[in-house]
Amino acid sequence: MSTRRRRTPGNDSTFLGATDTGRSIWQSGYWLVLALLTVSYVLCAIQTSPNPSLIALLFQLVTVAATLWVAQVKPSIRRLGWAILTAVGLAVVIVQLGGVEGRLLGVILSTASMLAYLVAPVAIIAHQARKMRVDGQTFLAAISAYIMVGMFFTFAYSLAALSTAQPLFGEGDEDTLTSRLFFSFTTLTTTGYGNLVPVGALAQSVAIMEAIAGQLFLVVVVARVVSGWQPQRR
């Protein structure tokens, strides 16, 4: 007599999308990560100022917290991560309510955003590396991690701009978070429209690292998908 295994968070073969059922993508939870990430992206894209907003940062912290849960990080590490994220969020709120403005606030928000988008894709990649097969959740996880890499470098450009006295793209171009977001993803995908060019050795070095990271990410993900893909059994 066949028995069905109970789906529990610790059972990666049947939980979070490792089943062959059509609900696997929704069970995985990566749709939630992708939805939160989309909101975070939009909040950054609509900004006309060069520095990230507090609301955008809080959404980013919530996104990372959800990622730690969906990626099945060890409970002890997950709880520690949630505690750190909560502390960072409260600290940033207190700092902004305390009247801190200008370059210092920009450095704090950019650094916190960078750390958030560094932890989240690492957790996703580690989770997917433990799986034995590729399925629908793998694609959502890959898309989420790829977008997070682009967001990480967006705030790396912001931090680079705050570290120098000159605008990121020179005097003639608009230097806002929206333009940095656009430049980051065109660099990550090596599209390179050429309408925005970073000025200064630091920003140019970050751009080179992002282009290399984008290509390596795609090579690794495509190889993983091709080697692990198994069609659904009927």
Would you give an account of this structure?
The protein has 234 residues and is mostly helical. The protein has one domain. Helix content is 67%, strand content 0%. The chain is globular, with a radius of gyration of 19 Å.
SSE map:
Blueprint: H1 24-28, H2 30-45, H3 54-70, H4 75-97, H5 102-129, H6 136-163, H7 177-188, H8 201-228
The end-to-end span amounts to 20 Å
Strand content: under 5%
Low-confidence stretches: 1-23
**Residues in helices, as a percent range:** 55-70%
Radius of gyration: 19 Å
Write the element-wise H/E pattern from the N-terminal end onward.
HHHHHHHH
The average pLDDT score comes to: 81
Main beta sheet: strand number and arrangement?
none
Total tally of structural domains: 1
Tally of DSSP helical segments: 8
Extended strand count: 0
Class by SSE composition: mainly alpha
Oligomer state equals single chain
Morphology = globular
Concise account of the structure shown:
The chain is mostly helical and 234 residues long. The protein has helices at residues 24-28, 30-45, 54-70, 75-97, 102-129, 136-163, 177-188, 201-228. Residues 1-23 have low confidence and may be disordered.
